[in-house]
Amino acid sequence: MSDILSALHTDHRHIHKLMRLLGQQTALLASGNDPDWDLVIDILNYMAQYPDACHHPREEQIFNHFRQRYKNSDLDETIERLAREHRELPPATIELRNQVESIREGAAILTRDELASSLNDYIAQQHNHIATEENRLFPVVEHRLTADDLKILEATLPEQQDPVFGSVTEQQFEALYRRILEGDEGDEKRP
Ligand SMILES: [Fe+2]
Question: 179: CA distance to ligand 1 center in Å?
Answer without folding.
Answer: 23
